[in-house]
Specification:
It is globular and about 55 Å long. α1 crosses α9 and α7 packs across α8. The protein has a seven-stranded parallel beta sheet with strand order 3-2-1-4-5-6-7, with helices on both faces. It is of the alpha/beta class and 260 residues long. The protein has two domains: 211 residues, Rossmann fold; 37 residues, no CATH class. β5, α5 and β6 form a beta-alpha-beta unit. The structure holds nicotinamide-adenine-dinucleotide. The site of nicotinamide-adenine-dinucleotide (NAD) has 27 residues, from α1, α4 and α6. Pfam families: adh_short_C2. GO terms for molecular function: 3-hydroxybutyrate dehydrogenase activity.
C-alpha cells in the first residue's frame, strides 16, 4: 500500500501539530504527498514538525498558522497553501457538560472548529481541486458522528454535521474525480482524550486505568485504542487509486463501537 502513489500531490491537514492530524500527515507523506501542517499556534516547534516530516519522508512540508475557529482564516489557509489536492479536515476540540450548564462560548467554539471549519476549507479547496481535475477530501468525524453520548451535545452535533457535509460535498463533486469521505474513529489515546481522563477520574472516583478500561474502552468491543497511524492509513487508503469510487461514505475505525 505504501508505494509513493501520492507523489506530486499536496495535502493540507488542519489541526495537525499533534494527535490524529499529525499521524494522518505522516502516513500521507509516507505515500509521497507534500504536506501543509496547521494549527492556531506559531511556535518554533510547530515549524520543526514540518522540517522533521520533510526529512523523514523526503517530501516538501511546511507549517501554516491559521485559527480554524475563524472562517476567513480557514479560507486563507488554503489560499496560502496555494495547492490543495488532498484536504483533511481534522482540527477539533472537546468539552463535556450537561446541556443546561454548557457554556455558550464552548458550544460556539466546538461548532466552529469541529464543523464549520470543514465547510470553509472545502469551499476554498474545491476550485483548486476542480482546476487540477482531481481531489480527495477526508473529514475526520467520530463515532460520535454516528452515535451519541450524554454531556457531549456540541461535539455530537458538530460531528453529525460533518457527516452530513461529507455527503453533500460528495454529491456536488461526484462527476469530477473528487471524492469526499469521513473517518469515524472511536477512542484514540491523543492529547484530546488524555485531557478528559483527570475529570473522569474525579467524577467516578476511579484510577486512570479504571477510567480507560471501564469508561473509554467499555464502548469498544476490541478493548484497544486505535492508533494515529491506523487512522492515517485509513486516510491514505481513501486517497489511493483503490478508493476512487468510494465517496460520500463513512469509515468507522472504532474497534466495533458502532456495531453494538
Ligand atoms: P488533539 O488535541 O491531539 O488534536 C487536535 C488538533 O486540533 C491539534 O493539532 C490542535 O492544535 C488543533 N486545533 C485545536 N483548535 C484549533 C484551532 N482553533 N485552529 C486550528 N487547529 C486547532 O486531538 P485528536 O484526538 O488528535 O483530535 C483530532 C480530531 O480527531 C478531532 O476532530 C477529534 O474530534 C477527532 N477524533 C478524535 C478521537 C480520539 O479518540 N482522539 C475520536 C474521534 C474523533
Amino acid at each position: 500500500m505504501f508505494e509513493k502513489f501520492l507523489a506530486g500531490k499536496t495535502a493540507v491537514v488542519t489541526g495537525s501539530n499533534s494527535g490524529i492530524g499529525l499521524g494522518v500527515a505522516h502516513q500521507l507523506a509516507r505515500a509521497g504527498a507534500d504536506i501543509v501542517l496547521n494549527s492556531f499556534t506559531d511556535r518554533d516547534e510547530d515549524h520543526a514538525l514540518a522540517q522533521s516530516m520533510a526529512d523523514q519522508h523526503g517530501v516538501k512540508a511546511r507549517y501554516i498558522k491559521a485559527d480554524m475557529s475563524k472562517g476567513d482564516e480557514c479560507r486563507a489557509l488554503i489560499e496560502t497553501a496555494g495547492a490543495c489536492d488532498i484536504l483533511v479536515n481534522n482540527a477539533g476540540i472537546q468539552f463535556v457538560a450537561p446541556i443546561p450548564d454548557f457554556p455558550t462560548e464552548k458550544w460556539d467554539a466546538i461548532i466552529a472548529i469541529n464543523m464549520s471549519s470543514a465547510f470553509h476549507t472545502t469551499a476554498a479547496a474545491l476550485p483548486l481541486m476542480r482546476k487540477a481535475g482531481w481531489g480527495r477530501i477526508v473529514n475526520v468525524a467520530s463515532a460520535h458522528g454516528l452515535t451519541a453520548s450524554p454531556f457531549k451535545s456540541a461535539y455530537v452535533t458538530a460531528k453529525h454535521g460533518v457527516v452530513g457535509l461529507t455527503k453533500v460535498t460528495a454529491l456536488e463533486t461526484a462527476q469530477e474525480k473528487i471524492t469526499c469521505n469521513a473517518i469515524c474513529p472511536g477512542y484514540v489515546l491523543t492529547p484530546l482524550v488524555e485531557a478528559q481522563i483527570p475529570d473522569t477520574m474525579k467524577e467516578y472516583d476511579m484510577t486512570r486505568d479504571e477510567v480507560i478500561k471501564k469508561v473509554m474502552l467499555e464502548r469498544q468491543p476490541s478493548k484497544e485504542f486505535a492508533t494515529v497511524e491506523e487512522i492515517g492509513d485509513t486516510a491514505a487508503f481513501l486517497c489511493s487509486p483503490a478508493a476512487a469510487q468510494i465517496t460520500g461514505t463513512t469509515i468507522s475505525v472504532d474497534g466495533g463501537w458502532t456495531a453494538l
